[in-house]
Amino acid sequence: MFPIFKLPFLTIIGIVKSCSLKEIVMLSMTSNRSLRIMKNLLNHIRFCDNNNIIIDMSIYTSVHQIKVITVHDRCNTHVIDSKWMRTAPSCDKTFNNRKYFLNHYMYGLKTYWQDDDEAIQMLYNHIWKLFGTPVTNLEFNPSEDKLYLNLLESVLNNQDAIPQGSVGLVNLSEKNCARVLMHLQKVQNLSLSSNVLNCDASKFKFQNLMIEDGDNISFQKLIELNCESIGVYQHCNKDNALQNNTLNGYLRRWTAGFFPRLKSFRLETKASLTLPEILRKIHLEQSADQIEIDGEDTVLTAGPLNIHSVADGKIGTVYIMDTWNEHGHQLTIFELSVEN
Ligand SMILES: *[C@@H]1O[C@H](CO)[C@@H](O)[C@H](O)[C@H]1NC(C)=O
Ligand SMILES: *[C@@H]1O[C@H](CO)[C@@H](O)[C@H](O)[C@H]1NC(C)=O
Ligand SMILES: *[C@@H]1O[C@H](CO)[C@@H](O)[C@H](O)[C@H]1NC(C)=O
Ligand SMILES: *[C@@H]1O[C@H](CO)[C@@H](O)[C@H](O)[C@H]1NC(C)=O
Ligand SMILES: *[C@@H]1O[C@H](CO)[C@@H](O)[C@H](O)[C@H]1NC(C)=O
């Protein structure tokens, strides 16, 4: 490679300023010395402060990706396992003494490795050292024999919390669901497939939890969840939809102080719901709240009404809205929102 680091400092600065993110990442990967130099140069041009970097990481079994995104540029680095090595062009490189194949494309780098799990760990460490920026968004899809918990632990060693995260439809044993959930408590906005709740979820505390495939979620599971906010989406199937009386049971538990951290509960369902049934035998009052409705296709159909928690005196406001999804199906939205 052309020895760019032998050039005068100001010249190097000029070069780095005109480099794309992809070039910066690639240059920094050539040796530990170039990582150190690039990092110093980036600090010098205050690259990390000014550009508001976003780091997204996605983990799937045998394919991973780290995206570095700034307002003006992006670099996606794919980490692909050895099965695909033969499809890779023959440009081979080394990184931390490990051989890999490299392929460029417009928005980034495709890298092919003998051991993709080790590679994603090395690459994550590298990106952290280079930019010092926390992971903003994590897509995490472990499997029974590849849980990637060491990687999660490294991330959580470097940052207290992960702002956004999601886990798709994975197939994990009860024990491994619990191990994964244990770590994911540090994700502030967490979207989970209900499959990942295949364990006693009451041991864990979440901040904002979304269950997008919540069609079959049971009452039992619902009351296990300890969150500040929960969204359950029952968009596909209404056979196992949460019933008026189930929601009644949930609200009664709230009034008895069962979910002291809860600030908001939202259910979107294809089933129709009626507020008088949901509030049966719960003491209620008219609410003076104005419900803000976003979306012109959404209409308030019942409420708002206030209920009280006898345990801590908090007031919860409940209401129902109707809306339509992108397929033109009518959906009912039930919400409980708890005043601070
Ligand atoms: C670069 O440093 C890492 C640890 O920081 C080490 O594992 C690796 O072996 C070093 N690479 C080379 C080529 O010395
Ligand atoms: C979590 O999601 C809510 C609503 O979607 C958003 O207002 C909030 O900023 C998000 N929080 C984080 C930490 O990303
Ligand atoms: C899920 O994993 C179990 C064993 O770990 C296996 O028996 C089952 O077939 C898997 N299910 C799916 C849908 O892959
Ligand atoms: C919910 O259960 C039904 C059968 O009752 C099944 O057909 C459907 O696939 C399940 N949905 C999810 C998201 O698990
Ligand atoms: C709620 O109650 C209404 C009125 O009895 C009924 O029409 C509706 O099907 C019920 N829905 C659910 C999901 O329980």
From TrEMBL:
Assigned keywords, A-Z: Signal
Pfam families linked to this entry: FBA_2
InterPro entries from the UniProt entry: F-box_Sdz-33
Residues in Sdz-33 F-box domain copies: 205-267
Membrane recorded as keyword: no
Signal peptide interval: 1-18
PANTHER family xref list: F-BOX ASSOCIATED DOMAIN-CONTAINING PROTEIN-RELATED (PTHR21503:SF8), F-BOX-CONTAINING HYPOTHETICAL PROTEIN C.ELEGANS (PTHR21503)
Name recorded for this polypeptide: Sdz-33 F-box domain-containing protein
Species assigned in the record: Caenorhabditis brenneri
